[in-house]
Structure formats: structure tokens, C-alpha cells
Amino acid sequence: MRNAIGLMSGTSLDGVDIAWLRTDGEQIESFGPTGYRPYSEEERVLLHKALDAAPQIARLEERPAEVAAAENLITRAHAEAVESFLAANQIDRATVDVVGFHGQTVLHRPHDRLTVQIGEGERLAKALGLPVVYDLRAADVAAGGQGAPLVPVYHRALVRLADCATPACIVNIGGVANITYIDGETLIACDTGPGNALLDDYLMRHIGKAMDRGGAIAAQGEPDSDWIAQALDHPFFDRPAPKSLDRNDFASFAVDGMTLEDGAATLTAFTVASIARIVDQLPNQPASWIVVGGGANNPTLMQMLSERLAPMPVVTGHDLGWQGDAIEAQAFAYLAVRSLKGLPLTYPGTTGVSAPLSGGVLARP
């Protein structure tokens, strides 16, 4: 068994999640403490500038000025997150076997065999004095896979540990929403559409708020069913799994002619409708739906999803005792250990790669 720390900065651009996990890369022996290092408003502005500049990247190593500045921020913020985490939890650095470092996705174009996660793994390893596994998507994309989602193999470990009714479907709602379908050895995954990103960006533009906390704004509005039906005509939704998205693939989907509340309700309902759309592509009806990620903390979204998927039960990871907000960070701890052991991170059913494939780059301090 290895002691691993996982780090995740997601497409919602809210901050760095950090988690401790003890695992052999197959079974989970124990969970540990979790932590969070939020981005300041100035840091979020810089990260958004990097996202705006990233489409000009044509090669993995390219870094336009805004992206280079953001990469420096990401590396520093993750180092700070780990140092604070070790101190707060009185963890001896010598007991940490590996750090799994996802970095920050700024560009995801698997059809061009290109995915860019900024963050300097070698520099982070030296700053922390710990081995760091990073660049976990690139090998899959280079081999013709989607490079996303990466977390399904960890979802399978969680479902087995919890002894959930199967088929089980885990819905992860971050900036982009994705699902993992688990039924025995069958593992299917894909992005389903926008998660929180459209709503977050909409509220930031209009009222300077980073999110619809508690779903309070959407709860006061009415979804525009015609707008949602038209949005679902996008060809992405008819493509079979596996498939993946860039955070900004739906950025042009505007609801600016609506009231603030109706716009928020419509974007929330669009996320829900795009998740429900995947049901017809699954081999069997899931016996359980388990929601994790930031969306699980939004009661308005959860109510819409429960109504849309009825009579299938919908619960959150919290309901099962999982540390729902830390699952992706835990996953990158788990994936780092799998990478060290050469175990597969991705599969034909999760990314479309032709055969199970390991990945990641090891940086030593």
C-alpha cells in the first residue's frame, strides 16, 4: 500500500482540492484528511485570461504569455496547498510516497491529439521534496483516446468498496459533467455536456458572483424549454460514448435575453437534460445514480435531476459517506499510484483508446 496525496484544479476554476489516500492502486485501504486552497479573484481573472489565450496553442509545449503566467500561478498554488495541508494535518512529509498532480486544463482537443494541463510537475516535485506524477492525460490522447474522463477507474473502486447496487452510474458535475457506468467488469464513461461552467460564467458576467450558491437564483426562475430543446440539437449529444468536451465548447450558448433568474434556471436545467440524455446510450438502466462534484451541493439542480431521472433513485456521494467534494483529488492520488505500478488509467469504454493504457510522467525531487 502507498500513501498518496492527490491534487485537483477543475474547470470551475474555484481552487485546489487536496486529499490523502492509502491504496495499492486497486483497492482503497483508507481515506484521509482533505483540504482546499481557494483562488483569489485576481487569480481567477488570470486563469480566465489563460483560457481565452489557450486556443492559439498548436503544440503541447507552447505557452502564450497569459498561459505561461497562469502556469506559474498553478504550480505555486499547488505547492502552497500541499504545504498547508501537511502542516494543518501534522503529516510527516517522509510518509508521503507520491503526489498526483492533475494541473489545470486550459485546452482539450483530442481530435487534434492535443490536451494541455498547465502546471510544472518537475518544479512542484523539487519545491515539495516529493515524487510527483503529472501529465496524466497526454499518453491516452497521443494513442487516439479522448484523454477524459480519467476518474472512472477510481469510481469503480468506490462502488466496489461501498457495495452499491449495480449497474451504478456516477455523475460528476464540475465545470463539465461526466458519467461513469459500472456493471461488473463493464466500465463506460463520457462527458455528458456542460456542468457548472455555463452557469458560473453567466453569473460572473452579470452580477459578479462565482456560482449560484445553493441553487438559490435558479430556484426563483423558470427554465426555457424551447431554448433547452434547441441546445440539445447540438451534434455532441447524439455522439456515442466515449466522448469528451473542452470547458468552453458551449460558451456561445447565450441566455442573455432572459431575466437573471430564468437564465440561471435554464442553464441549470440544460445541464440536467444533457445528463438525462445519456440514459438511452447505456446498456442497461442504472439501479443507482450517485452525484458527486460541485453540482451535488446545489439543491435546485439535484431536485431537477431527481425529477428527470425518476423513478430511478438519485443520491449524492455524501449520502454514501463519500467525501464528495474531494473525490477528484482522491482519484488523482489513486491514479498516481496506478501510474507508478504501470496499471491502466484509461480503457476503450472510458476514452475510446484501443487498449487499456497507463500514463503519467514521474518527476523526482
Automatic annotation (TrEMBL):
**Listed pathway(s):** Amino-sugar metabolism; 1,6-anhydro-N-acetylmuramate degradation; Cell wall biogenesis; peptidoglycan recycling
What InterPro entries does UniProt report for this protein, alphabetically? Anhydro_N_Ac-Mur_kinase (IPR005338), ATPase_NBD (IPR043129)
The record lists the membrane-crossing segments as none
**Record has NAD as a keyword:** no
Give the catalysed reaction(s), semicolon-separated. Answer: 1,6-anhydro-N-acetyl-beta-muramate + ATP + H2O = N-acetyl-D-muramate 6-phosphate + ADP + H(+)
Q: Does the keyword ATP-binding apply?
A: yes
Query: GO terms for biological process?
Result: 1,6-anhydro-N-acetyl-beta-muramic acid catabolic process; amino sugar metabolic process; peptidoglycan turnover
Q: A Gene Ontology MF term for this entry?
A: kinase activity
Q: What class of enzyme is it?
A: transferase
The entry marks the following residues as binding ATP, namely: G10, T11, S12, L13, D14, G15, V16, D17
What EC number(s) is this enzyme filed under?
2.7.1.170
Keywords carried by this UniProt record: ATP-binding, Carbohydrate metabolism, Kinase, Nucleotide-binding, Transferase
Protein's job: Catalyzes the specific phosphorylation of 1,6-anhydro-N-acetylmuramic acid (anhMurNAc) with the simultaneous cleavage of the 1,6-anhydro ring, generating MurNAc-6-P. Is required for the utilization of anhMurNAc either imported from the medium or derived from its own cell wall murein, and thus plays a role in cell wall recycling.
NCBIfam families in the record: PRK09585.1-5 (NF007141)
Family to which the UniProt record says this protein belongs = Belongs to the anhydro-N-acetylmuramic acid kinase family.
The entry's protein name is Anhydro-N-acetylmuramic acid kinase
Q: Which organism is it from?
A: Afipia felis (Cat scratch disease bacillus)
